[in-house]
Amino acid sequence: MIFRILEDQLAQKSRETKDADRRFMQLALMLGRRGQGRTWPNPAVGAVVVRDGVIVGRGWTQPGGRPHAEPEALRRAGEAAQGATLYVTLEPCSHVGKSPPCVDAIIAAGIARVVSAIEDPNPEVAGQGHAKLRAAGIKVDVGLGAEEAARDHAGHFRRVRDKRPHVILKLAVSPDDKIAAAGHTPVAITGEAARTQVHLLRAQCDAILVGIGTVLADDPLLTCRLPGMEARSPVRVVLDRALRIPGTSRLVHSARETPLWVVTSELAEAAAAMKLGAAGAQVIRVATTTSPPGLDVLAVLHALAARGRGRARSIAAIGNHAVAGLEGSC
Fold it and tell me: Which uninterrupted H or E stretch holds 326?
């Protein structure tokens, strides 16, 4: 009977620990999302320090990618980090970059256990962070919240593995699969709630991409216009094979306030490119395809990933069915 009671108590404690782990990892994931769209060239990570069931420190990757989430959480925890558990949405870095390795800070703080959502595919980390923590006597559990973490870090993973950004396609489609009225006449398909979500998506992405057809038809601004979040507007990217973008467009006029990248063919006129450059836009030349005629899809994506130290990790592609293929309206 005594052994049965002990078994039940251990099982209850195990369930409570697992429930607590899930709650704290969910908080770390939520914190990490605060940095999405602002932390390039580093991933947007969240971290939580917990001691005896009490949160003693929280952190997320700061704008510009530094400080990292783990040192931020440890700084806030202070001496309370000794013997505590650290929940983090991505494997802590173990290499020396522009800041010291996060694993060194974790070890120095006296953390007893690390719960890491997922391994970092970056070759400079790739399991070495977890290994170094274990070698220091820290218990490391990996995999809790991995599915959500993989979605949150999709831009980072795609850039590391495929050398291109992660593309999110946004389309407004009616129940009968239409995106406009007859004759391509614009018509409102969504409502205020959807528009708010669209602007939030812009704030969470590194770049927003449209084809020249959308620019000529709608003269969009493509900024984030949620109250207090205007500064989180992404880089605006226009696919424009022949550099038809008007100098009078709102995109060009605002190029010095919010970055504008115009992707064009290697044969586009130099004079038009110079005018765009003088207005503050950056012109990126890539290869073209002949069948169908347009910009080469992979060339576009690789060029965007390489631009600005990998700034474009996640891209919201917005427009019509042609932009869905990243080629037809180029």
Answer: none
91 is catalytic: no
Q: Are strands 293-295 and 288-290 parallel, antiparallel or unpaired?
A: antiparallel
Which residue in the list 7, 70, 257, 269 is annotated as catalytic? 70
Encode pLDDT of 15-27 as tens digits: 767 899 999 999 9
- Pairing verdict, β 46-51 and 54-60: antiparallel
What gap in Å lies between CA 63 and CA 210, rounded to an integer? 25
User: Could you give the CA distance from residue 92 to residue 243 in angstroms, rounded to a whole number?
Assistant: 43
Q: Is-contact 45 69, C-beta < 8 A?
A: yes
- One DSSP character per residue, 105-162 reads HHHHHT--EEEES-----TTTTTHHHHHHHHTT-EEEE-TTHHHHHHHTHHHHHHHHH
Rounded to whole angstroms, how far apart are CA atoms 320 and 211? 8
H or E element, residue 179: none
The reported pTM is 0.85
Each residue's pLDDT tens digit, 76-89: 999 999 999 999 99
Contact 93, 3 (CB under 8 A): no
Q: Specify the amino acid at residue 178.
A: K
Tell me the residue ranges of DSSP E strands in 6-106: 46-51, 54-60, 85-88
